[in-house]
Amino acid sequence: MSAVEAALRLREKAGEIKPDDIESVEVETFTVSYKIIVEDPEKWDPKTRETADHSLPYIVAASLLDGRVWLETFKPERFLAEDVRKVMKKTSIRVNPKYDEIYPEGIGNKIRVRLKDGRTLEEESIYPPGHFRNPLDRGGVEAKFNKLLEGLVPEERRREFLGDAWNIENLRRPFEIFRSLSVME
Q1: How much is the average pLDDT of 33-59?
Q2: Element holding 99 (H helix, E strand)
Q3: E strand segments, 72-137
Q4: How far apart are CA 14 and CA 149, in angstroms?
Q5: Does the pLDDT of residue 114 top 60, yes or no?
Q6: What backbone torsions phi and psi does residue 112 show, to the nearest 5 degrees?
Q7: Concatenated DSSP letters of 11-33
């Protein structure tokens, strides 16, 4: 997630980015990340949702191009798309020993994008939102929860669930709060 945060910040700085705008993308990460989500050839050519979800080259490219990461990011029409494949081909990834020194406490990633207009943009993230050293606040948790269930569970039932969840230690039967989340038909 730190690579996603860094890529999204770069996208904010650059504005909309097209594959042809990019000269190169350089990513610095830590060894564990490299071994799990970079090293294997399929990480550079994801053909399934699971591989796309565990591909640093893909997620950086998609973040830079789309300016967001959400459920549609992991649909075949996205991870097989020509534009992300083009950016992945311009991407290089290497291990930075600095990030090995702080792992697992921190999950450092730095991304540098060189654009054809001459700009070079760089961002680093070590403790992305949701990391134990940078937890989401209540509003962030609720926003993500509501976004995930919008259109599936009515707003009133989502509010009821959240009220119970934030007060779970006082509920007599806490497992019953999940009944309010039954999906609409």
Answers
A1: 98
A2: helix 97-102
A3: 91-95, 109-115, 120-125
A4: 31
A5: yes
A6: -125, 125
A7: HHHH-S--GGGEEEEEEEE-HHH
For position 99, what pLDDT does the model report? 98
Burial (Cβ within 10 Å: 0-12, 13-18, ≥19) of residue 18: exposed
Length of the chain: 185
Give me the residues paired with residue 22 across strands.
115
Q: How far apart are CA 139 and CA 119, in angstroms?
A: 35
In the sheet where 109-115 sits, what is the strand order? 91-95, 22-29, 109-115, 120-125
Alpha-carbon distance values, 24 to 46, 87, 117, 128, 131 (Å): 20, 8, 12, 24, 28
Q: In the prediction, which pLDDT does 183 show?
A: 66
pLDDT score, position 184: 57
Q: H or E element: which one contains 184?
A: none
Please tell me the distance from the alpha carbon of residue 77 to that of residue 80, in angstroms, as a whole number: 6
The string of DSSP codes covering 139-174 is: HHHHHHHHHHHTTTS-HHHHHHHHHHHTTGGG-SSG
